[in-house]
Amino acid sequence: MSDLKPSEIVKELDKYIIGQQKAKRSVSIALRNRWRRRQVPEDLRDEIAPKNIILIGPTGVGKTEIARRLSRLTDSPFTKVEASKFTEVGYMGRDVESMVRDLLELTVNMVKAKAQESVEEKARQIAEERMLDLLLPKPRAKQKQDSEAAKQIPIDFMAHNDAESSSTREKLREMLREGKLDNRYVDIDISDRAVPVVEIFSSMGIEEMGINFKDMLGGIMPKSSKRRKLKVPEAMRTLAQEEAQNLVDMEEVVSRAIKKVEQTGIIFLDEIDKIVSKNGSHGPDVSREGVQRDLLPVVEGCNVTTKYGPVKTDHILFIASGAFHTIKPSDLIPELQGRFPIRVELDSLGKDEFVRILTEPKNALLLQYLALLRTEGVDVVFENDAVAKIAKIAEEVNNLTENIGARRLHTLMEYLLEDILFDAPDMKEKRIVIDGKYVDDKLKDIKDDEDLSRYIL
User: For binding ATP, which residues are annotated in this chain's numbering (predicted)?
Assistant: First the structure.
């Protein structure tokens, strides 16, 4: 992240997201400010709060994608939550602190996976030694004598036996590495600690109780192992995974994960406009203002209790988004407005943007369908007029019905290619050209019938 200037962040986002330059500039500045904060003197560092952002715009214009790509770009912990799932404490639903717990859980798993990758080679070596022990077990008589009768056996005799055993072991090691033992089965013991499932329903979540029930019961329950018969390659993978888990220091993993969340975590709060009450606090909107007040301390900065320990939210970056059709950001409670100083309005998408979305990004929709059909040996070619026609129809349907932005393209493409996708395995003609006429024939009747297009497109 320290190497990325705001202009470079925007350039990377351009590879996946069309347009929305104002939003890209805002998020790139917010991200760079995190790096700048870490360069300032330590006494001032904790005083600099993250500049949280509200992205305003209809669905399907790229709000979520901007936040998701941003986190992948910087390898930051990221979670997306719908604000409408939260309810004020006392009502049935999730409490707002659960989003921080979810973020930490994801980060712990991510850091643990990376830690296991770093010890993969060592784990494979230990697994290889365990496999050789299984393939060349010591005789039972020798196992008993090792501890008791070792003193009576002449030293030169022991050395001779050890050398012979070592030679056989090295031959087996060579055969194992060359894959000559791949069809052989071995019995391995895999540790299996059965922990009964305990579900507790509370408004605060299980972590608030200060007890990790799973760990507690795991310590009480006896540790058992189950024996499985596996082929040598599969057994090697299983043993290597087990050894990798044993080599990873979980305390260090948790410590690094908490630090990562506190310093570089990103929480994307979708549908924040759904927790804004339009007409006072009565009727079904009774808990909405309460959710905003519950969100306030988390966004402002507090300690959230998790099963891994307390997590500070002072420097987590919050990116909120909403359509704000019938309400305005100023309808949020004043304290929460103050915690989201940056507001960016995203542009609605039209025909020109749809053409670019279909063809330009690295994960362009047309490229996805071409790759899917290529697996069946079918080569589909889209003419320029076909792409323009699809984009034009998407714009018209969005204007006539609900405006769902670029998501309309998915619906159109599925309906347009339905027959080809169904018949692809049995097609004799392996090259199909889709032009403007094909698109018109397939979509014109439905598009012209407004009632029908509401149901199908």
Answer: 18, 60-65, 270, 335, 407
